[in-house]
Structures are given as structure tokens and as C-alpha cells.
Amino acid sequence: RRASRGATRAPAPRRRLRARRRCSMSPVRERLLDFAKQVAWSLPIGIAFTDLVGTVVRVEGPSMQPTFNPGLDADRPSSSREVTQDWILVEKISYKLLHDYRRGDVATLWAPDNPRIQMTKRIAAIQGDTIWDDSDGRPLTIPQGRCWVEGDNASHSADSRNMYGPVHLGLLEGRAMAVVWPPSRMGAVARVPVKGRVISEAEEVESLVRPG
């Protein structure tokens, strides 16, 4: 019989060789395909988890001493290479989903002047609170949608007091729950309101303007 026009067939030995190669490669390909499927399923879940639920981050620098990095020499930047800096567990549900911001929380947030830098600061005041602004020497009411953040180590911290003013709540990433590394530093992170910063809290301000 004549072969159909335009069709070609490899010699029988070559076809058999190709078939054997396909059979020998199929288990490897199946494993690679299974692995690719697992990555395809797990990657979005992992991203969603770290973005909305929680993550672990390293605290940089001395701005939150003595709460974090107590062994770091604030006046000698090179000491950061000699001392193991704190790693903290950060939960994000409170801020990202519940929008529950509290005075005294230790929060991770993006720097207002550089969205690639993440900072760790304590929330001193929330929207509606009135504080004493040392830079202007007068009371300041925190606008809606913003908060006032400070480092525990005032002399080595760039924060709302000396650089940013009230920061947008959308910059807050999550709340520090615990130090998880190094082992000698493991423990819960306490919610400690900043003493003497708030003149009147939001609830008190609202009560003054409500009729009756």
C-alpha cells in the first residue's frame, strides 16, 4: 500500500526506541508533575497566610530596647553583627481583618517614607486620642485612620515624635506576639501603654461632643 500523501513514519526500530524512552521517563515526569501541582496549590496558600494570618520577622536595630535586642550596643552599629537580634512572631488578623488597634501594642509597619523598610514600634495613641506633641509644644488630636507610634528607646528611634507624625493605619502589618529566637529570649510580648503620652483618650473625646 502506498503511504498517504504528506505522512511519514519513522522506521520500526526508532519507534520502539522512542516508546522505551517514554516509558522510562514517565515515572520521573509524574513525580515532577506531582511536585509542580503541590507547589501550585501551596504557594498561594502560603502567601495568603503570611499576608493575612501571621509570620516571623527579625527586629532590626536598637529603637525598641529594652523590649527587643537588649544586647545590642546602640552607639556601635557594628555590634549588630556580633549579637543575635530578636526574631518575633507577628499575628496579622487583628489589624488586617479585625482592624483592632490598641494602645500599647507593639506593631510592625512599613516606614512612611520608604515602603521597602519595615519597622517595629509601639502604638502610643490611636485615632481620636489627644496627645502632647513635643515637637510643636501643643496638644494634637490623632486624625481618623491614623495612629501615633514610638520606639521604646526614644533616643535611638525615628518615629512619630521626631519624623513621621501620625502614621496611616494602612501601613501597620501586624502585632508582635512573642520573641521566638534566640532561645534565651523566648517569651510573650506585653501590651504596655506609653505613660504620659495621651492627654485624653478617644472615648473621652467622643463623650464631650455627644449631645446630652
What's the quick description here?
The radius of gyration is 28 Å and the shape is elongated. It is 27% helix and 27% strand. The chain is an alpha+beta fold.
Outline: elongated
Given helix and strand content, the structural type is alpha+beta
Q: Approximately how much beta-strand content do the residues carry?
A: 25-35%
Distance between the termini: 104 Å
- Mean pLDDT metric: 82
Largest sheet: 8 strands, antiparallel
Helical fraction equals 25-40%
* N-to-C SSE string, H for helix and E for strand: HEEHEEEEEHEEEEH
| Poorly predicted regions | 204-212
What gyration radius follows from the Cα positions, in whole Å? Answer: 28 Å
Instruction: Tell how many strands the DSSP assignment holds.
Output: 11
- Counted by DSSP, the helix tally is 4
Question: What's the layout of helices and strands?
Answer:
Blueprint: H1 12-52, E1 54-58, E2 87-91, H2 93-96, E3 106-111, E4 114-125, E5 130-133, E6 138-141, E7 146-150, H3 160-164, E8 167-168, E9 172-181, E10 187-188, E11 198-200, H4 202-209
Antiparallel strand pairs: 1-2, 2-9, 3-4, 3-9, 4-7, 5-6, 5-11, 7-8, 9-10
